[in-house]
Amino acid sequence: MSKNITDRYQWKDRLLGLLVPVLLLIAWQGLVNLKLYSDLILVPPTKVLSTLVYLAGTGELTTHILVSLRRVLTGFLFGASSGFVLGLFMGLSESTNRTLGPFIKALKQVPEFAWMPMIILVFGMDELAKNVFIAIGAFYPMVYNTYQGVSSVPNKYQELARVFDFKNIRFLSKVILPSALPSILTGLRLSLGLSWMFVVGAELFGTDSGIGYMMYSGREMFQIDVVIAGLVVIGAIGFIMNALLKMIENKVLVWNVSVEGGKG
Amino acid sequence: MYLLKEERVKSMNIRNQIKLRIGSLALPLVLFIVWQFIASQGYILAMILPSPATVFNTLITNITQHDLLLHVAASLKRVIVGFLVGTVSGFALGLFMGLSRTAEKIFAPTFHVIRQVPVIGWIPLIVMWFAIAEVPQIIIISLAAFYPMTLNTFAGVRNVRKEYLELASVNGYKGIKLIRKIIVPSALPSIITGATLSLGMSWGIMMAAEFFIDTSYGIGTRIQAGRSSFNMALVLVGIFTIGLIGYVLTVIIETLGRVVNQGRDVNKEI
Q1: CA of B93 to nearest chain A CA: how many angstroms apart?
Q2: Distance from CA of B245 to the nearest CA of A (A)
Q3: Could you give the CA distance from residue A139 to residue A148 in angstroms, rounded to a whole number?
Q4: Judging by beta carbons within 10 Å of its beta carbon (0-12, 13-18, 19+), is residue B110 exposed, middle or buried?
Q5: What pLDDT is attached to residue B12?
Q6: pLDDT (tens digit, 9 = 90+) per residue, B185-215?
Q7: Nearest CA to B89 among B142, B16, B14, B22?
Q8: Chain B environment of A111 (Cβ under 8 Å)
Q9: CB atoms near residue A220 (< 10 Å)
Q10: Which of B26, B105, B243 comes nearest A13 by C-beta?
Q11: How many CB atoms within 10 Å of residue B47?
Q12: Smallest CA–CA distance from B235 into chain A, residue
């Protein structure tokens, strides 16, 4: 009985959440019906949907998505792994932190996009330049969050490790990493989110494939339905990536809490 | 005796502090020397790596002859307007969703879905719709400022301590007075965090906006000019300028945040 009631409340909440999207769609369609704007500027929602279906049907959309995903993963792996290693060293050794910390902080003051022209001058316009650019975006949150996690491992864990004579790799894998894991996972999620943002940016800069390119060429040819379809796709992929990593995070965090609870 | 010991500790602290400062300068100094060495030996084309002297000269001529300061002013103006529009509307939405659970249920799902679209992705659409002077840049910048401000205001308002709200209702605080005297002051640290993040985002996205949307003035425009004329020194000057101003902006807003926070003595209250 009470379960039924909570179910009904959740249903009501869901419906409330749909209110804004539905109103927006109605307003959009209404604006189209008024015929105030040309169809170069405003297309009906159904046109966007049919474009999306059409692009998916020809396989064009899948190709663009796969190209973008490959770029993201390559850049993300480079940036996040180097950020992880650096953050780990900075967290473990105070002198490394003192030498590198302020320098990285200073570099961080330069927005990632400002590096783009320099990257293009040095690496040209091909894949490498995009990977480097995405890697820079993935790098910062990973350094910061790994450092935070590693440097704030509770002292009592470290003492316990000393008592058990845990050293080097074992100390790292049994004490430091598990304790820093929540922070590292947050870093990974932020890092992947930024990578996804920067791949779109990198592809707007000039290339011949990728979801960002699809939107860019849509703009050049005044196909606003393609531009909006691209927006829907990058939003959906960003949403899925975030949800996936959040799911992993939650699973790991549950495990983490239960271990801590078990130890009292 | 005791005083002496105290003094020694104090002086040691200063010495440690100096050590720390020197330690943090070591890496940039080494990099600078390596840069100068490589540039002077000509191992790498001057087009890719100009010497420090060339970069410095480019900086000077850009200030004296090429209106670097006007470019900086144009970028700053864009960021400030976009930041204000974005944070004010983010504050309003965050406050609204924080105060009313119904408002949260109505707006939060849409907000969180739209937030997943990278800000850069909006650029083609915004440019097609609002191709008027500064409008597209400002919309993009304010969108970047909007998200962190909404999230942090919402979190701050939702986490106002129950005791405060009870005390307020006992004293008959309602409506605007409740918001002004109780809710906003106790949510302030979170709101300030939001504003700080928003400013950083605005500054970062401004670069992208200037790259992708044609403008005649702006640091991003200047860096792009350096790229298209293969003038690496100009690109480096732009990067340096943008980093420096970004740093100054961060320091300003962090100091401001600290001052506002101290004025309320939030730490003593809790």
Answers
A1: 14
A2: 8
A3: 14
A4: middle
A5: 57
A6: 888 889 998 999 999 999 989 988 888 887 8
A7: B142
A8: 203-208, 242, 246
A9: 9
A10: B105
A11: 12
A12: A118
